From TrEMBL:
GO BP term, example: cilium assembly
Record localization: Cell projection, Cilium; Cytoplasm, Cytoskeleton
Record's signal peptide: none
Keyword Cytoplasm: yes
GO cellular component, one term: ciliary basal body
This protein's name: BBSome complex member BBS5 PH domain-containing protein
Species whose genome carries this gene: Rotaria magnacalcarata
Domain BBSome complex member BBS5 PH residue range list: 1-142
Similarity field: Belongs to the BBS5 family.
């Protein structure tokens, strides 16, 4: 039993395999590029299932459903276009920090393995040497 969305299906064929004829469904690279084989007996049942899946596949692509239902309403000619009023929110800008997103910046250096381990008095264990300008407090600051 398998469930493959039609839009992730690349091809549906009947092919010969080491087990005899098989229904083969190939998925797109986006969905993993799988090659799924199914054996059905007798052969006429295999051909019938293949034809039914192909018909459903073509029917789906002729009128795909993406899970959202909507109806386009025509605007009456005598009604003016609806315009939403622009609202400006009151915002307070907090004190800026030197490294506003230090964690993200730190992670960009994560691929570089030239940070030698050093003993952290604060944590009581060995950690990677932090890049210049970073502190443990600034990395933990993302949680608050």
């Amino acid at each position: 039993n398998v469930s493959v969305p039609y839009y992730q299906t690349k091809s549906i064929k009947v092919r010969d395999s080491k087990f005899g004829l098989a229904l083969v469904i190939e998925t797109t690279p986006y969905s993993g590029n799988y090659l799924l084989g199914f054996q059905l007996a007798p052969e006429e049942k295999l051909r019938e299932v293949h034809k039914e899946i192909l018909t459903l596949h073509k029917s789906y692509f002729a009128n795909p459903e993406f899970g959202v239902q909507f109806a386009i309403e025509e605007q009456q000619p005598d009604q003016p276009a609806t315009r939403l009023e622009s609202i400006v929110d009151d915002m307070e800008i907090l004190q800026s920090r030197e490294h506003t997103d230090s964690y993200a910046t730190y992670l960009t250096d994560a691929g570089k393995h030239d940070h030698e381990p050093v003993y952290s008095e604060e944590l009581g264990l060995a950690i990677e040497k932090l890049p210049q300008g970073y502190t443990l407090a600034s990395l933990w600051d993302i949680l608050s």
